[in-house]
């Protein structure tokens, strides 16, 4: 019997390395090593969604949104307030001084022409006081031109072209006045032609350019002032949105945590509400003050300037007609219309200025000037031209000085009692009227600048307060959220 066959020996192998291959779901070599670098970043949206779906994650997101909304609202208000302060600084230090320089330029040129024409119709070349007044007016005009040029930012603008035109033509005017004086000293009749040509240059070119410059700059003052009184709606809406979000978050957090009030969120809501109310109150006050500023300062200042300019031009026309020895019915009618226009403007301004008595005195002087003018016309009709000249340039009857307040109209005495010197004193009445208009303009301009400076200070206060409240509100939200997050840890 043969022995059983021994089975062949199995080969000895190590443990299989593919015993768990059935568990693999990815294909071998299916992911590039380079793409694996971006795997964490690609997984962020999924992880963030999972995080937000949890209560602590949602609480963190809500608090972050609240902090960003509060800071954005405060930042927008601070930026808007800073921009408004910059605009106010530009108005106070740039636009308004430029407008005032333009006004002074117009007035100085008008005064120079009025004095030059008035002094010419006197015997000789005028008095020393006339020469001093003429020189002073030219100096003021030159200084005003320089200030106006320095205040213009764009060298190619229309404003700069107007200033350059005045600078170029003013020497021509001065030269013509000098020629007129030289000829007048030697009683050369050609002097009248020179003075007429000089006045025509002043009225048609210099004053026209100065008037346009003043109109343009004054319009910018009004536009900027109106713009600065408008409420800042965009930052106000941001503050309101932040307050609404805080209130809604307070209710949501109460439902989430079963607590009625969160001290941090409540404090933040109170602070942002105070910031909103403060800003709204400041906007209302600024709007009301802006309307009041326009009524009490800007509009009266513009009217007073126009009145003074009209008075200067009326005086120049009156004197120039005497130089030409022509006083037509049309010129008499024009003079009367200007007097009525000035008187009506002053009457309207009486209740808008600080010193109504000064307006009343100015109206009395205006009536005195009208009386003197009527006396001059009477003498011209009687053929007494030298006496008419003396009345037109008279300072008074010698009993009172130019600043005597006891006779504001200069008509206390009978015109005939003073002979040809003219007790009515045309020059005296006009000079005092011009000084009082200057005083009214100075007071009204001070009111306007005080209002602008006060607006600038108010804007600065609002900025500081809103910044402080928003920073503390953001901190309160963070402090109010932290204890609730710790409950989940």
Characterise the protein shown here:
The protein is mainly alpha-helical and 489 residues long. It has one domain. Helix content is 77%, strand content 0%. The chain is built from eleven helices and no strands. The protein has helices at residues 39-52, 55-120, 128-151, 158-185, 190-228, 233-257, 263-324, 329-349, 356-381, 385-393, 426-486. Helix 3 packs antiparallel against helix 4 (158-185) and helix 9 (356-381) packs antiparallel against helix 11. The longest helix is centred in the first third of the chain and has 66 residues, at 55-120. The two termini are 83 Å apart. The relative contact order is 0.11. Residues 396-424 have low confidence and may be disordered. The chain crosses the membrane at residues 58-80, 233-253, 265-287, 462-481. Residues 14-25 have a biased composition (Basic and acidic residues). Keywords: Membrane, Transmembrane, Transmembrane helix. This is Chemotaxis methyl-accepting receptor HlyB-like 4HB MCP domain-containing protein. It comes from Corynebacterium bovis DSM 20582 = CIP 54.80.
